[in-house]
Amino acid sequence: MTVQGTCDPRFSLVREEFERNIAERGEIGASVCVMVDGEVVVDLWGGEAAPGTPWLHDTIGHVWSCTKGATALCAHLLAARGELDLDAPVIRYWPEYGAAGKGATLVRHVLAHQAGLPVLREPLPADAFLDWKLMAERLAVAEPFWEPGTRHGYHALTFGFLVGEIIRRISGRSLGTFFREEVAEPLGLEFWLGLPEEQEGRVAPTIPADVPAELPSFYVKAFSDPSSMPALLLGNDGGFMTSSDTRESHAGEYGSVGAITNARGLAGMYRPLSLGELVPAEQRSIMARTESAGMDAVLGVPTRWSAGFMKSTDNRHLPAADSEGALMSEYAFGHAGMGGSVGFCDPGARLAFGYSMNKQGSGLGINPRGQALTDAAYRTLGYDRANGGIWYRP
User: Domain Beta-lactamase-related spans what residues (predicted)?
Assistant: First the structure.
C-alpha cells in the first residue's frame, strides 16, 4: 500500500514508523500530520479507506474521543473571553443542573471528569444520542455516582453533553455551530461536529478492533457486573455504538465522540495552541495543568486530566491488556480517540500532532501505532524518554 504526501527529511523517522504501521502493525488506512513552529513538516496518508478504495489526501473519518479536545477548546475560548468561569458552579449557567445534590458541581469538575456523571442509571431510548434536549434534561436531574470533585472517572459519552450544554447556555449556539464559527472556519479546518451531507462521501468507515486474547479490566468489569459504571457505559449509550457509522450519526453534534476529520484537521486545531495563539498564556496554562490523576473510577486504570484534555500517562507497568497510555511531554495536552486516533499540542516543543485511522486498536490508549508516530516526532526534536516514560528535553 503506497504512502503518499510530504515529509521533511529531518522527520524521516515519522515516515518510517508510518510505513511500518501499514506493513507490520495492522494498519488499514490512516493519516499523520506533524507541525513544528507552525509549519507542516509531515503530512502523510496511505492504505485503504475501504476495500478497494485508497485513502486519499482528503479522506476523513470518525476520530471518536478526539472530539472532546474540540469541545474543551470551545469552553476555554469562552473562559478566555471572561464569559465562562471555570471555578463557578455549573448552575450559574445551567440552573436545572442543581437537582439531585449537584448544586456544588463546578465547571472545572465537569471538564476534569470529576462531575460524577460518567453514565446514566435510567435506561435511554435507542436514539437518545441524537436528542440533545433529552440528554441535557436527563443529566440535569440525574444523581451523581460520587460527590463532585472528590474523584475522577472518564465521562466517555456524557462529557460532550455536559460541557456542550454549558457552551450552549452561554453562547446561544449549539456546540457544533460554535465550533464551526469560532474554530474550524477561522482556522480553515476540515473538522466537523455535525458533518454536512455533501461531505459524507469522503468518510472512511470505521473498522472495529479485533477481540484481544486478554480483555482490559474495563471490559472485564463491564461483562461481569451489570450494575457497574463500565456496564452502564456500554449498555446504556443511547444507541450510539450501534449507529456510529451512519449518515444520521455523522450529522449529529455529538461532543464526546462524534467528530469527523483527519490528521491534518487534528494537528491544525492544536497548531495555534502550540504557538501561544488563540487563547492568552494564562488560559493555555490552565489547559495544560493536571487537574485529576490516579486510578480512574470508570476505566479501572490510572488516568491524568487537565481541564478537558488528556495528559501524558504511563501505564506500561500494568498487565499487557491495561498497559496502554499516551506518552507525551509534561507540557503536552490533547486527546486520544477510541481505537488509537490522537491529536495534541506541546507548547514547549512548539509541536502540533494529529493521527487518524479507520482500523481501531483494542486498548484504552493510543496503542502502538499512534505511540510509534508520537515517539518518532519527539526523537526527531531531540527529546528523551528515559525519565519515567514521559518525554523531556535533556
Answer: 18-362
